[in-house]
Amino acid sequence: TAPPTINLDNPDEQCDLDYVANVARKVDNLDVAMSNSFGFGGHNASLVFKKYKG
């Protein structure tokens, strides 16, 4: 399940992304996921996970 991006009312039509706007959506072939966290004072982090195919 892909979590929603809340309060996304007007996505940019020229930005070709697969938005999950306001409601979670089931995803069957999810191989890569990214999570960003932006904090005060420059404490920022990004995590990228990829499915292991071994």
Question: What does this 3D model show about the protein?
Answer:
With 54 residues, this protein is mostly beta strands. It has one domain (1-54). Helices cover 0% and strands 26% of the residues. The chain has no helices and two strands. It has strands at 32-38, 44-50. It has a two-stranded antiparallel ribbon with strand order 1-2. The protein is extended, with a radius of gyration of 14 Å. The mean pLDDT is 90.
Given helix and strand content, the structural type is mainly beta
- Helix content range of the residues, please? under 10%
Task: Report strand %.
Answer: 25-35%
Strand order, biggest sheet? Answer: 1-2
Reported for the largest beta sheet, the result is: 2 strands, antiparallel
Low-confidence stretches: none
Number-wise, the strands total: 2
Domain tally: 1
Output mean pLDDT.
Answer: 90
Write down the Rg.
Answer: 14 Å
Task: Give me the strand/helix succession.
Answer: EE
Gap from first CA to last CA: 23 Å
What's the number of helices?
A: 0
- Specify the overall morphology: extended
Features of this protein?
extended, 54 residues, 2 strands, 26% strand, mainly beta, two-stranded antiparallel sheet, single chain
